Amino acid sequence: MEKDVERFGDDQEIVPGIRSIWTPGHTPGHTSFMVTSGEAQLLVWGDVTNFTDIVLRFPLWTPSADMDQQVALSTRMRMLDMATADRMRVSCFHGPFPGNGYIRKITDEEYRLVPLQWTEHLDGWK
Question: What span, in angstroms and rounded, lies between the C-alpha atoms of 86 and 121?
């Protein structure tokens, strides 16, 4: 029910440890999230880099999948700068498995996803 939906804005703590980041351009209202636990951070940025392999290699390219290409470009560059400057772990949709790692800046116009190694076991769980 719509009456049960609570809307949130940019830079708002949704629940403890999860904060919204407005990342417009791909779609209206596109939002990413910063997840924190102690000192650890994970930037979940959805479609900021749709077609991750291509868009990171050519970040100035504006794919037709972005509804507002110029806004999406500005958002993408802002988020890439944030991820590389702060060495944040990133989870990105449409990326190669496992879809998370760190962004490495190659040049001002080229980036790469350095994926984290995947393991099917979690700290001794089997």
Answer: 28
pLDDT digits (tens, 9 = 90+) for 85-125: 999 999 988 877 888 899 999 998 999 999 887 766 666 55
Instruction: Quote the CA–CA distance of 88 and 107 in Å, as a whole number.
Output: 18
Which three-class secondary structure string do you get for 50-104?
CCHHHHHHCCCCCCCCCCCHHHHHHHHHHHHHHHHHCCCEEECCCCCCCCEEEEE
CB 25 within 8 A of CB 40: no
The pLDDT value given to residue 63: 87
Looking up residue 33, the CATH number of its domain turns out to be 3.60.15.10
36 found inside a domain: yes
Q: What are phi and psi of 3, to 5 degrees?
A: -65, -20
pLDDT higher than threshold 90 for residue 15: yes
**Number of domains the chain is built from:** 1
**Cβ neighbours, 10 Å, residue 113:** 21
